[in-house]
């Protein structure tokens, strides 16, 4: 049953990759990249379970955190044009 799940995740990964390459807007591509990261986390977990290697779950958790932080950073960059300058003073000072 887990082999079927892994195969379904690979198909989902391929479909998300197609969306990332053909997305009409930048936000479609960012969403597809986030989906690819989520599917990769699920795939790591399933492969770790199938192989009897529970340390893969730790890797999946770290990758999930990096995926979230990376997605937020990319979206902030596209919205504001930079990730922030520590030398800039906030407005009103």
Characterise the protein shown here:
This protein is an all-alpha fold. It has one domain. It contains three helices and no strands. α1 (2-22) packs antiparallel against α2 (26-51) and α2 (26-51) runs antiparallel to α3 (55-80).
Short overview:
With 93 residues, this protein is mainly alpha-helical. It is built from three helices and no strands.
Produce the secondary structure layout:
Blueprint: H1 2-22, H2 26-51, H3 55-80
Mean pLDDT: 86
Taken from the alpha-carbon principal axes, the silhouette is flat
Uncertain segments are none
Distance between the termini: 61 Å
Number of strands: 0
Radius of gyration: 17 Å
N-to-C SSE string, H for helix and E for strand: HHH
Q: Count of DSSP helices?
A: 3
Class derived from helix and strand content: mainly alpha
Sheet with the most strands, sense and barrel status:
none
When the domains are counted, the total is 1
Percent of sequence in beta strands: under 5%
Approximate helicity band = over 70%
Sum up the structure in keywords.
93 residues
């Amino acid at each position: 049953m887990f082999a079927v799940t892994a195969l379904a995740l690979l198909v989902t990964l391929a479909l998300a990759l197609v969306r990332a390459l053909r997305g009409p807007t930048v936000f479609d591509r960012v969403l597809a990249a986030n989906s690819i990261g989520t599917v990769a986390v699920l795939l790591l977990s399933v492969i770790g379970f199938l192989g009897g290697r529970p340390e893969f779950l730790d890797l999946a958790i770290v990758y999930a955190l990096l995926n979230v932080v990376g997605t937020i950073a990319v979206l902030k960059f596209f919205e504001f044009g930079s990730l922030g300058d520590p030398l800039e003073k906030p407005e009103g000072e």
